[in-house]
Amino acid sequence: MLQTLKNSRLAVFSLRISGVISPNTLKQVNTQLNRFSLYRPAALAVVVNSPGGAAASSHLLAKRLQAYAQQHAVPMYGFAEGLAASGGYMVLSACKEIYINPGSLVGSVGARMDLLSLKQLALKYGIERRTWASSPQDVHLRVDLLGELSPETKKWLSGLLEDTHQDFKREVQTARSSRMPSVKPDDAVLNGEVYVGQKAIDMGLADKIGEPEEVLAQLFPKLKVVDLSRPRRWEKAGSWAKMALSSASS
């Protein structure tokens, strides 16, 4: 009787990661994983539709999901929607199996940094930056958006990106070792290339074609799927109450 009751409380937990990955994404996922539920997880399904984002946030997010799966001793399945690139793919690569649809863009194992140059704007309006720092190695001093980047600074930034890229490669190769045994570190699949659908599977970046609903129904035909990304009724009610109190006090 007790065992039957325990089994009836088993469910597949799912959550969605969409958009650019940032520290706020990690915060949201932590909130979702810690939500009270009447069910116990039998598996974790992660649905990704993301171009990536902050390298540190993507790495921490992948590790957080892995830790959750290990804590509850459950398998983790990844699903790519339209896009799972860069940090979005880093999250997927942490999963036991990766499913994609025929139009999914997958991969972009690389690192990038965007810096705007405001030099011409500063010259036009007579803007001059005056910065004091205790060390010439201060990052704000070295990366001056109002001036030119020195050759030394460009080399330093390239080194940072290379270190980040190498870490990304190691994570993917470790997680996907059985799927891409013959891939070398300098192959395109580990150097920023993006693949579509079946080609991504052929390159070892994904495992099978499949949609979340169909795959989970086949793997766990008797279990309910609990979407952790969707607020519960009492959480919505709490949010409405807070909004009402805020409006009344203003």
Would you give an account of this structure?
The protein has 250 residues and is an alpha/beta fold. The chain has two domains: 2-108 and 193-249, 2-enoyl-CoA Hydratase, Chain A, domain 1 (Alpha-Beta Complex); 112-179, no CATH class. The protein is 43% helix and 18% strand. The chain contains ten helices and eight strands. The chain has helices at 2-8, 23-33, 55-71, 87-93, 119-125, 139-142, 151-175, 198-202, 212-219, 233-249, and strands spanning 10-18, 40-50, 76-85, 97-100, 105-107, 194-196, 208-209, 224-227. Strands 1, 2, 3, 4, 5, 6, 7 and 8 form an eight-stranded mixed sheet that branches. Helix 4 links the parallel strand 3 (76-85) and strand 4 (97-100). Helix 2 (23-33) packs parallel to helix 3 (55-71) and helix 3 (55-71) runs parallel beside helix 4. The longest helix has 25 residues, at 151-175. It is elongated. Mean pLDDT is 85; it is low at 1-5 and 234-245.
